[in-house]
Structure formats: C-alpha cells, structure tokens
Amino acid sequence: MSGSIRDTQARITREALSGRLPILSTERIYSNYSSFLWTCTTFSAATWAFLIGGYLPYLGDTKISILGYLCGMILGMVPVTLASGLPSYRYGVDTIDAAKASFGIRGMILPLIGLLATMVGWTYVLVALTARGAANIIQTVQASADPTPEPIVIGFALLTLMLVWLLASKGPWLFEQLSNYIAPGHIFVTIVMLILLLLKFGPQTLMSANVATDKLYTADQVQGFAYAVELGISNSLTWWPVMGGLTRLVKSRRHIVGPSVLGVGVLGAAFISSVAAFAAVTAGTPDPTIWMIQLGGRIIGTAIMTFVLAANIATMVIMIYLAGVSIQQVRFLTRVRWDLLIVLLLIPGIYFAFRTEWLLGTVMVWLTYNGVMFVGISGITFVDYFILRKQRVNAAHLFTPSSSGKYYFWGGFNWIAVVVAVVGIALYLEMYNPVSLVTNDYFRYLGAGLPTMTLSAILYFLLIRAVAVPLGKGDYAWVEKSATTSQVPLSSVPVGL
Amino acid sequence: MPEHSAHISPAADGAGSFFVTESASELDRELAARLSDLERLPHSASECFQPARSIFMESAVWMIAGAAIWILTIVAMR
C-alpha cells in the first residue's frame, strides 16, 4: 500500500471518528473491557459525583440513601444503555442519527436539543465548579479567611476552557488513553478517602452517621429511599445522549452493558457518591471542597482536591467530543474543521467564565430537570429498535434527507414520537417534581422514571401500530420483509450528511 | 458507486481551506461507501451483527440485582 493511500485512509478514519460517518468494526478504538470501563468511569466520576454524594444523607438514613442511589443507577443504566447504545453499536452511527429511525429525519431535532443542552450545559457547569474549586484550594493553601479574588476564578475558568479545547481537538483517541490513568486514579483516591474516614471515625460510627432529623427532606424512610432511587434513575437518564456516541467506538458486544453499568453506574457514580455521603455527613457539610480538606488535612486534602478537579477536564473533553459529533447534524458544520467546531461549542463558555457563581446558582436548577427530558425518549427508542424494528434499521435511510427516505414520516417528523416524548415529560412531572420533591401516591414504591419510561414505550408502540403502520409510514413493514430478502440496494438510495 | 443526494453539489470552495476539511461531495461519497461496507465483510461478520442474546442475559442479571436491592431494602425497613 502506498504512503498516499495510507494517509488518505488514516484521514478518513479521523474524519469518521470526529464526525458522523458510520464507524466500521475494524476502526473502533475500544477493543477490551477495561478500556471502555475506564472511559465510562472517568466520564461519570466528575465533581458532580461528590456533590450528589453530599446530598444523599439529606434524603434520610445515609446507608439506605446510598443503597437507593446504587439501585437507581443500575436500574436506570440498563435500559438507557440498551436504548441508546445498541443501535449505535451495530451500525456505528451517532445517537442522534440512530434516533432518526424513531423520531424522523427532522424530528431528531428534539433529542438533539436535549443532547446539546446536556453535553454543553454540563460542560459549562463543570468549568464553573472546577474554577471555583481551584479558588478554594488557593484559599486553603494560603490559610486565608478571605475568598480568592474573582479575577483568579475567571482565569481558572478560561484556562479550563483552553485545556478542554486542546484535548478535545485531538479526537477520541486521547481521552481513551487518558481514561486508563484517570479512572483508576479516581478509584484509588476514593479508596484513600474511605480509609481516612474509617481510621478517623471507625466503621460503626460511620455506618450510623446521619443528618439531624430536622434537616432531612423527609422523615419517612421509605419515601427517602424512593427519592434516592429516583435520583439514581434520573441521573442514568441523562446518559441517553451519551451512550450511543461511546458504543459506536466499541468493538465487542461483550463490552457494552457491563462497562456501562459498572463504570457509569457503580464505580463512577454510586461508589464515589457513597464515600462522599459518609464524608459529608461526618463533616457536617455537603461541600466537597470543605470536607476533603477537613478529612485529608491541608496537604493530602489539597492533593486529592487538585486531582479531582483536574480529572474534571477529562469529563468535559468527552462531553464536548460527543456534542461536536452530534452538532454536525447541522449540515454546514459537517465540513467545519474539528478543532474549529470545538471552538464554536466552547465560545459561549467564555461568557459563563465571568459569571460562574450565577451559573451554579441558576442553571443548576434548570439542569435538575435534565433527566426528565430523556424519560420518554428512552422508552421510545427502546421499543422502536427492539420491538417494532426487531433490531433492524435501514442505515442508508438514516442519511436520506429527502421525502424518498424511509424515515421521513410526516414532513421529516414522526409526530407520534414527538408527542409521546412530551407526554412522557408531563407524566414524569405529575408523578414527581425533582425541585419541589412533590410526589404522587405511587412514587414511594415505584418511583417515577421507570413507570414513565414503560408507559411511554407502551403508548408509542400502540400508536405506531394503530397509525404509522397502516399508513405505511416509517418503513415498519420492511422489518418483516428484510428477514427473508436482502436489504434495499444502496444504489437506489440518495444519501448525504 | 452509490448515488449521492441530489441536493449536494461538489463544493469547489471547501477542500483544504482554513475553515473546512472536505468538500460536501467527498464526504457524501465516503458516507455512501461506508453504508455499503456496513452490509459487507468484515463488518457484516463482526460481533456488531451477532445476535444480542448475551447482551440481554447480562442486562437481565443487572436488572435482577437492582430490583433485589430495591425490594430487600424496603422489606428490611418494615
């Protein structure tokens, strides 16, 4: 093979990995269990895991809240991984391209907005958390009573954005490599914190440590457990826009579910949050920048805090990578250079770098509703791919933007999916409001996320069978035919990014 | 070689400039080739197109573990 052909193939692979081109099995970068496990762990184990951990003791008994959160993460991550991850794994396409089979070639705008809000919104929040955390470290090192001046916080935020751009510009290879060190480091640091807690308080004191009753959100233990389960499920739902973007980079089907549930749900979220919960309840504050220093002392505590903040960079890089791939649904952006595309996504972050306190105070409330956006979408994409389409999608038609495409539905929109997704949000909020914590009667035993996901899936299934199939919309009949006949010849399908 | 979208015209403005990487037609050609490759060896014989039974089994084990934690904790609280 000549050098120029090799160069061309390498460039095309680069384009595929940092773009929307389907990634073939031979090009995928996650070839073993541990490499994907560590990326999932790195992604999940950002500062938010410590913040959530600090919040858990306020839901009731600390141990029971930890169990509830673990349970919610597991029960949420499985359907989310299947719904978002499996179509992308099979066809090598991004989550949003895969979602066109259910939402329509233009209707994918709904999950796309959710994806960008999640990825870009959380990146800016993480920039603010990192900058303010770094400022707290300086204050601790200087043993100063005065907070670090705001210009230094802004400087840290801008520096963080710059680092994210530098690393994300390199594509997914770099975070695949970095994750192999950051995730084990995160687990090691968390184990060190657990050992410090056990040495300082002893296992019995630790296991019985609880927040004062008057500070709890509820005195009802079962209700508190249900809140914790729902927190886990709601957190899992925010992974719908993520999993497909990652599983299209995985080689083996044995490395899909285990690393996703174990890395995202158990190690990156539940384990870290449980140690954070014990640390927060014994320190009397949910703020990790305070209890880490209290627990480890000025030297070890500062070192741990520095590592945790630095590790946030890797999480932001993965989020911006996924947002960069998905935003190329905007046709012009498919041709913009990858590093410039990352700049476009990060530019609004400069504005937020000057308003980190406002961002954490205001946007966090809005992001509390983040998981709700994907509750109906998860149910819809699950039932569409596994039940209605029997895991067979006509990949070429995901890239056919004209009315000749099989997933054109009604003007490019599958209105059934759009309506069911919105109904799913309303239904969820009827069962549980994550801000006011108001719930209905069934919540204490069923939660809200799983029943809503199930009801959305059933409603979508019935409406597709009753409306779309008889009208010949969405190519559901092809699934039956394709079991015996070959695929529609590609030569008859006009495709474009 | 598969056809490309009728809406796409090869862009003379794009290739190699500072802002863009490829011309639209070049990317669409590559897309069509890749979509075709999805149906051919080696991708069609890869694990991607193997039955998902083992994935469902693994998922079921995780779901049972999650449900067991849920039920046992509620029972223990009574």
List the SSEs and their pairings:
The complex is a heterodimer of chains A (497) and B (78).
Chain A: H1 3-17, H2 33-44, H3 47-55, H4 62-91, H5 95-103, H6 109-141, H7 150-168, H8 172-201, H9 203-207, H10 221-237, H11 240-247, H12 257-283, H13 288-326, H14 338-353, H15 356-367, H16 370-373, H17 375-388, H18 415-431, H19 443-446, H20 449-471, H21 476-482
Chain B: H1 24-38, H2 53-77
Detailed description of the structure:
The complex is a heterodimer of chains A (497) and B (78). With 497 residues, chain A is an all-alpha fold. In chain A, 70% of the residues lie in helices and 0% in strands. The longest helix of chain A has 39 residues, at 288-326. The model of chain A has no long low-confidence stretch (mean pLDDT 89). Chain B is mostly helical and 78 residues long. Chain B is 51% helix and 0% strand. The termini of chain B are far apart. Residues 1-17 of chain B have low confidence and may be disordered. Classes of the chains: A mainly alpha (497), B mainly alpha (78). Chains A and B meet through helix 1, helix 4, helix 10 and helix 12 of A and helix 1 and helix 2 of B.
Summary, kept brief:
Chain A has 497 residues and is mostly helical. Chain A is built from 21 helices and no strands.
* Estimated radius of gyration of chain A: 23 Å
Sheet-strand content of chain A, in percent, reads under 5%
Count of alpha/pi helices of chain B: 2
Overall mean confidence score, pLDDT of chain A: 89
Q: In total, how many beta strands of chain B?
A: 0
Alpha-carbon distance between the termini of chain B? 67 Å
**What is the H-and-E element order of chain B?**
HH
Class per helix and strand makeup of chain B: mainly alpha
Write down the overall geometry of chain B.
elongated
Strand content of chain B: under 5%
Most extensive contact:
A-B, 61 and 49 residues
Q: Oligomerization state of this entry?
A: heterodimer
